[in-house]
Amino acid sequence: MSNKYDTTTVKVFECGLVDYQTTWRAMQDFNAARADSAMDEIWLLQHPPVYTHGLNCQDQDIRGRPDIPSIPCDRGGETTYHGPGQLIAYTMMNIHVRDWGVKKLVTALEQSVIDLLHGYGIKAGRRADAPGVYVGSRKIAALGLRIKKGCSYHGIALNGRMDLRPFHEINPCGYPGLNVTQLADLIESYKEIQVQKEFLTTLLKNLGYNKVNHEKCTLPPYG
To answer: What is the CATH number of the domain that holds 27?
Structure first.
């Protein structure tokens, strides 16, 4: 194996439905152990219902339903909800060696969702005051990252076909009354497998990867 970091190659894991806390610890373990030459990774997955609270979370954002676990974590941002049917891409990128800033990575992740929606004739965009992607006034994708040792983990969560009601019990990303939407309400005959494949394609393009080592597993072998 080459000892030089390859900016064009990424390892992609399709992990299925995975417990949030297990995945978070696995991301931390991977980031702590990786060498500068280690290949970047993208983990495509979904979580059982869970509220997560980022490092910027305010007390008034921590509400939610009592039957749904609530977990403080180390990503940026505030409170959000994850559940089955949400398409999540966690991006483990060596931004230091790659010479990317955090803003460039955030822009690339957001642009991946914007490009995906554009392909379906849906106009989406950013907001200057809040990371993520919006269709009109409704948020469709939430983003939160952690940068440690010059490398990123966590990533972007795109609402596919899911129960949106748990969002109503929080201030999504710290914004009271922020409405959310999902792909299934915007795309006729929404097909999750097809859309996830297209989402990965836009991610690879915007993150600058053209070589992929693709694997399927329940969780990458770091947890």
So the answer is: 3.30.930.10
- The residue annotated as part of the active site, out of 73, 151, 173, 217, is 173
* Within-domain flag for 148: yes
What are the pLDDT digits (tens) for 15-52? 999 999 999 999 999 999 999 899 999 999 999 999 99
Q: How many domains does the chain have?
A: 1
User: Which whole-number Å values give the CA distances from 79 to 26, 92, 149, 190, in the listed order?
Assistant: 21, 21, 25, 27
* C-beta neighbour count of 206 within 10 angstroms: 18
Helices (H), the chain: 20-33, 95-98, 102-118, 192-207
For the chain, residues with pLDDT lower than 70 are 1-3, 59-63, 218-223
Within a domain: 124: yes
Specify if 92 maps to a domain.
Answer: yes
102 in any annotated domain:
yes
The rounded distance, in Å, linking the Cα atoms of 197 and 202 is 9
Q: Is 173 a catalytic residue?
A: yes
213 token code pair: 């080592």
pTM above 0.85, yes or no: yes
Structure tokens at 107: 């822009």
